[in-house]
Write a structure and sequence with these properties.
This protein has about 650 residues and is mainly beta. Helices cover about 10% and strands about 55% of the residues. It has a 27-stranded mixed β-sheet that branches. Strands 43-44-45-46-48-49-50-52 form an eight-stranded antiparallel β-barrel.
Amino acid sequence: MITLRGALSTIIVLICVTSNIIAQALLDRRISIDVTNQRFSDVLKLISSRGNFYFSYNSSIIARDSLISISASNRPVKQVLDQLLGNQYQWQQSNNYIILRKAPLTAPVMIASATPSAEKLYTVTGFVLNGETGEKVGNVTIYEKERLVSTMSDDKGFFKIRLKSRYSTASLTISREMFEDTTVVIQPKYNQQVTIVMTPVVASGPIVTISPVDNELPDTIVVKPPTEPFAAASLSKEEINRVEKTRWGKRLLSAKQNIQSINLKKFFADRTFQVSLTPGLSTHGKLSAQVVNNFSVNMVGGYTAGVSGVELAGAFNINKKDVKYMQAAGALNVTGGSVTGVQLAGFHNHVLGNVDGVQASGFSNYVKGNVTGVQASSFHNHVSGSLKGIQASNFSNFIKGNLVGIQVSNFYNICYDSVFGVQAATIANFAHEQVSGMQASVIANIAHQELNGVQIATIFNYAKKLRGVQIGLINVSDTSAGYSIGLVNIVFKGIHKLMFSTNEVIDYNVAFKTGNKKLYSILLGGYSERKDTASFYTFGYGLGHEFSIGKMFSINPEFTTQTLHQGNWDNTNIMNKLHLQFNLKLGKFVTLFAGPSFTMYFSDVKKGASTIPPPLPNSYHTFDLWDNNVKGWFGWNAGIGFF
């Protein structure tokens, strides 16, 4: 074991020594080069080929039209790089790679002209510079974290900020998108001018790798996709600046407030209370959007980081992050995070996170995430996620995710996923996936996938896969293992039969049966001629059930009710029949059937009237049921069916 450990130690030492030797060997390699007014990338390609190593750099740090002249004879690579790059670039060796970076300016902050201030406030002025290019940087936020005082540099990089003299220490933090945050300590109680240097983050350009080849032509430049750090920076910008990009944020917030929100995405503070007149005119000044308050009052409107307590506004509240416990506004609430508690608005609530509690408005509500609780409005509610609880409006409701609870409106409800509960509307209900519960409306219900429950509508019900009950005038499904109760019941993959028959009363009958074996509907009509009385027509409706006995036989109990018409509507003649049909299948599309029946016949025609009920053959015995207007008898039915 001791020998093995010693061997491992020796191997590690040899690897380290070898790496150092290789690195030193690369820098000590001697090359010769003599070029005049050549492109920088071409010169790097030539050096890479002569020295047999790789260059790697971000394409944004070298201008495309940058021309270089250099002459070196039999010099080490290190000296050639120092001569070529000067103080504008930094280079670092990693194995057989030379990595190039833009060299930053030397001083992060320079202070000049410091004079004591006899007033209660002292002034700090100055410029903000790009640490790589030396250019002046505009739209930079300069702020003092403890006192919540801030300003922004103009297009020429100039800024001016006033601080209170009573504090013994002071520091300024400088923030801007795509630059690293910089904090500088300044001399308190002195008017002073400062120059502050900011360091850019990794640029967005692609990475260029130059490899050595036998010839000296720069034809092997490899361009790679942008690196991960830049993608992460873009994502962070999108997440932080969400509330400012809403239609309400664009209308109520200025461009400078939008820029400052992006610059200060890493800075947030907590305070007990704040009062504001409008966004930016606040007890927290221009930094009100970076402060989470326990108690917030906005006379007209306010723009804060969030609330952990109570927030009230005469017109509107805009919060970048979460709102907790209680928020009320005369017109509008816009929340970039989530709401926990109660949110009330006279017109509209707009939440980009989740809602856990109660959200109510005089017109509409919008939640990008999920809702757990109650969402109520006078016109429309919208949830892009799922809802657990109650959603109620006077006009319409929309849920993109699942509904677990109740959705009720006076016009229509839409759930674009599944419903586990109740949808109730005056006009229509729609569920894009399955329904486990109830849909009830005056006009129509649609379950685009499976229904495990009940659909009740005056006009129309649809479920792709029915495993419950449909009650309506027209019921439609693709497949059915449930019950459809209505005038027209259509199951596309169920029973569709056209039947022709005769019985003891009506000579010619035709019926259309649709549904499934559990329950199918019957639309029927008929015609009879009588020598001793007028001919009559009949039409009616019925329900039936099929008991299968093997592949060829089945028994179908059915109930039908028919109106008999003899040329006028002065009298009522209703015939109700109970059938017991025995069916024999002769193939896939043909069925013979026959069976007994029992009839209950009602007629309000009185003796001596000119119109009499349709007669039966003399061989049939009738008997009174309940009174003289209701007759009963036993009969028969036989016929052939197709499909």
